[in-house]
Amino acid sequence: MRGGGADVRRLVVVGHGMAATRLVEELVALGSSDEITVVGDEPGPAYNRILLSAVLEGSHAEEALTLRDTGWYAGHGVRLVGGTRVDELDRAGRQVVLADGSRLPYDHLVLATGANPTLPPMRGLVRRDGRLHERVHAFRSLADCRRLLEALPAARRAVVVGGGLLGLQVARALSVRGVLVEVVEGGDHLLRSQVGPRAGSVLQRSLTRLGTAVYLGARGVRLTEAGVVLDNGYVLETDLVVITAGGRPAASLARRAGLTVRRGVVVDDHLTSPDDPRVHAIGDCAEHEGRVSGFVPPAWEQASILARRLAGHDVCYSGARSVVRLRASDLDVAVLGDPEHEPGEVVEIANPVAGSHRKLVVREGRVVAASLVGDLSQVGLLTQHFDRGTVLGPREPGSLLLPDRPAAPRAIPDDAEVCACAGVSAARIRSCRTVEDARRTTRAGTGCGGCADVVRQLVATTERHPV
Amino acid sequence: MTHTHCPYCSLQCGMVLEGRRALEVQAWPEFPVNEGRLCRKGWTATGLRGHRERLTSPLVRDRDTGELRAVSWDEALDLVADRLSAIRDEHGADAVGVFGGGGLTNEKAYTLGKFARVVLGTSQVDYNGRWCMSSAASAANLAFGLDRGLPFPLADIEHTDVLVLVGSNLAETMPPAARHLDRLHENGGTVVVVDPRRTPTAERADLFVQPVPGTDLALALGVLHLLDAAGAVDEDYVAERTSGFAEVRGSLAAWWPERVERVTGVAAEQLRALCELLASADKVTVLTARGAEQHSTGTDTVLAWINVALALGMCGTPYAGYGCLTGQGNGQGGREHGQKADQLPGYRMIDDPQAREHVARVWGVEPGSLPGKGRSATELLDALGRPDGPRALLVLGSNPVVSAPNAHHVAERLAALDLLVVADVVMSETAARADVVLPVTQWAEETGTMTNLEGRVILREQAVEPPAGVRSDLELLAGLAERLGVRLESDPVAVFAELGRASAGGRADYAGIDHARIRAEHGVFWPCPAPDHPGTPRMFTDRFAHEDGRARFSVVEHRGADEQPDAAYPLHLTTGRVLAQYQSGAQTRRIAELADDGPFVELHPFLADRIGAHDGDPVVVTTRRGQLRAPARVVTTIRPDTLFVPFHWVGANLLTNDALDPTSRMPEFKACAAAVRT
């Protein structure tokens, strides 16, 4: 058990999601002597939230999402308080007040409370008791995912409200499960937070081809027995409504405690609240330089930096490069940075016929943002260039987007080495009458055997055209 | 007519030597490892016989002129023995170091270790095998409790369903082995190659995966994550034959395909394809080689791939499992008999009291007289000439000026020595810096056993008389030992018998092997504890070598290469071999029939265009440690963010990073940050 002494620093982490888990892992790795307590409102171990759609689709076992089981926390002397809500922060008393009224004292407090799904203004989503209508589902937590999975056997049709990343992932997962899916998106194209209209329309075409209808510029106004009623008068008959209309940083605790909250809990480059040097925030609930992220890589970057700061290292958070990947069968999307807003020169290749649209934003030779839809053949390399800030040559961004040209078949020159193992030239093999003859007199093909086809070809050519 | 084996790589292809004066290589079709096949290095192996650059007289550097002059063997050995004694008397036993090689026969490796511990009393003995397969060795010891590169005959891979080659270019580095890939295909199997370059081996793959250098570990984590998520783990096998899987399972959730893609540069889609292939196969074999192992994270990288093989339930089952394709001719045997800083013969650990007692009894000395663990190869070289490091070094079968990482630094350390003694066949770059050069026999001129990559102990028989003026390494060591007051055996048959006794009861037990059996059985697989024991072609069939009989999973984390590209050095540099050359090239570069075109710099057309270079233009590669100027070879088969330089010439290792793996002490030959310009 770590900690215990009177002079040991007490660290309380509110939230038990991916940012919180990473923070604790990093603290443990740094050999922290803090007495660490993690309070999470979800029961069970922390899990990898971004793979929920893979569980919904059926490609991932639920157990494979577990980040750290309870035994790991115990083994590293970290106290885990699961299934417990935090009701209040008592900053003056430096205590966290739990739902049962008990109090946890802290020397440092980390808010990693994540985000809550936003409900669109649509009548009939919520029942009188405040719970979601039985046909309506959110998709943020493992509990949401399980509830949706339970509803699947009886469901034939589904409406996904929201055409963003999560919406498309859920739509594809449900399709793979055999449910007929329709997507309702209020904006004028799909994935509008990440890509431009042209890329969005390529994506829409692909989705339509996969059997999912998309309604753009449409809002659901109410849910009735007949289905989802859109503002354009359409009624989408459905058994399920999945709400993926984005999330809002879970910042109410901080707000009530008098900390500065705009969209999220405001933090500086030290990931610390400007109002209280003992309070920190990381992950989806945090707002840094006016930005909230909603993605794992920045959350982990913040967790890592805060862990090092708490361990006494002088490091700062200056924003993270984000690479967003859509995880959905048969829909290929990668978004590097913010291609719609990042200034720079644009290199773009669109092929709606083949279902692809690729765009690079280049500034001073570097790929500073990109969106790739329908063709991820260079995603690995582009991500490396993006992450490492590689300075490319003037022709390189264009070359990266062009397919490899098939090499024209060429005659093998006489001095070319055909068999590397034995060091035999094409001329020597051409002088042989049969493959066996070539093997015996030149040893071509007797080493690794990789030249067998070429030898056969050269000998055959010789036979047809005697020299 | 003499049946023997090629002098080069770990395949140890069988060959027949004909003739007394002009030796000729002929095929030996009955020997199963190569079935009569050889590559051009093997066919031309006799090229050093009678070569004008062959050393035939001991040479001593004249203190006044700095020139080497020929002396008699007695004069040379007297001089070396006197100097070693004086240095030892003045500075202690550890002031003398010994450096061996993975190309030495078992008898030489054994005698070298004994010479260091018994004659010199020094702990400072290690060898260039640290730069070969040491990461795979460390990993196999951790996972299986025993390290035999391949725990099965190489030909077994023809009968697996999916073969995964991680960082192996066997079609170029051991060409006769490539026929197994063709036969595997004929049998309906699938080949996966993981390499930053699309090598001739990758050309034969059904699935080619091209990760960023230094990220094979993350790739393996991603593979295991997907396999576990898809329910492909063999739970029965894991429960019955392994331990530690729960902890590994708990460490995988953070390695989803898209994160792996960002780290490795391998598209998530391809990772999924690989995992589908693995999940649907009954038999999977994973083989690693230097590409995966020569990293500061080499041990963990191999462990990550072993985890994959174990989770699929493959290790110790027919035609499946994990193996390492060892590199040097006696890379396997060379690490088993005591030239390694922490080991005694029979793969015994030097800090194990029982091991010390057994070996001391065979050697007729007190266990307490044996020194403890010494420095690893790279650390040993780094310590040369320093206040607490060796002041004299004896080098056998190695050319570290070419083969060590950060070689410029190594040359500086060698220069700081009071005495450098090098035994070699030719004037290697290291020999050229020596105070005393001792000319020794080459392979066809002496007899000895080797242990190939399969753990098969084979016999190289003497085919011809050595040139006048040349002695074998064994005679050299015995001659020095005699002058230092200890009698050492120099007859290879007698040494092998003694080695058998010293190894008896150890992990690599040779006690039941003799020359007659090796001849009759086309080699004998260790462990072979008794004359009536059949040898062990396949290991781990019932149990692993840990006390509880189980294989161990290890939790490993991706750390990445020690040196990451940055603005000044924006590229990855990796190194490797070409077909026509071998290791530091001391032998092959002198053989007329093998093209010696010098080093080159392989780069992608994107990168060539970026710096304005054309194929054949000279380009300059720089790293924090050195620079190399060589012609560009512009190829589409390499990653556009990566450079490749072959390491057979002085140059490549002026560039490489000597950051070490914490367990195996393997330097990071295969990844460092570099820049290139015209």
Keywords:
heterodimer; A: about 475 residues; alpha/beta; Enolase-like, domain 1; 5-stranded parallel beta sheet; 13 helices; 30 strands; B: Rossmann fold; Dimethylsulfoxide Reductase, domain 2; Barwin-like endoglucanases; 7-stranded mixed beta sheet; 6-stranded mixed beta sheet; 22 helices; about 30% helix; about 20% strand; iron-sulfur (chain B); molybdopterin cofactor binding (chain B); MoPterin_dinucl-bd_dom (chain B)
Characterization of the model:
The complex is a heterodimer of chains A (467) and B (678). Chain A has 467 residues and is of the alpha/beta class. Chain A has 4 domains: 169 residues, FAD/NAD(P)-binding domain (3-Layer(bba) Sandwich), CATH 3.50.50.60; 110 residues, FAD/NAD(P)-binding domain, CATH 3.50.50; 70 residues, 2-Layer Sandwich (Enolase-like, domain 1); 48 residues, BFD-like [2Fe-2S]-binding domain (Arc Repressor Mutant, subunit A). Chain A is built from 13 helices and 30 strands. Chain A has a 6-stranded mixed β-sheet. In chain A, strands 11-18-12-13-14 form a 5-stranded parallel β-sheet, with helices on one face. A 5-stranded antiparallel β-sheet of chain A has the order 24-25-28-27-26. The radius of gyration of chain A is 29 Å and the shape is globular. With 678 residues, chain B is an alpha/beta fold. Chain B folds into 3 domains: 269 residues, Rossmann fold (3-Layer(aba) Sandwich); 186 residues, Dimethylsulfoxide Reductase, domain 2 (3-Layer(aba) Sandwich), CATH 3.40.228.10; 107 residues, Barwin-like endoglucanases (Beta Barrel). In chain B, the strands form 8 sheets. Chain B has a 7-stranded mixed β-sheet, covered by helices on one side. Chain B has a 6-stranded mixed β-sheet with strand order 24-26-25-30-23-27. A 5-stranded parallel β-sheet of chain B has the order 10-9-8-12-13, sandwiched between helices. In chain B, helix 3 links the parallel strand 6 and strand 7. Chain B is globular, with a radius of gyration of 24 Å. The termini of chain B are far apart. The relative contact order of chain B is 0.17. Classes of the chains: A alpha/beta (467), B alpha/beta (678). Chains A and B meet through strand 4, helix 9 and helix 10 of A and helix 7, helix 10 and helix 21 of B. Chain B: This is Nitrite reductase.
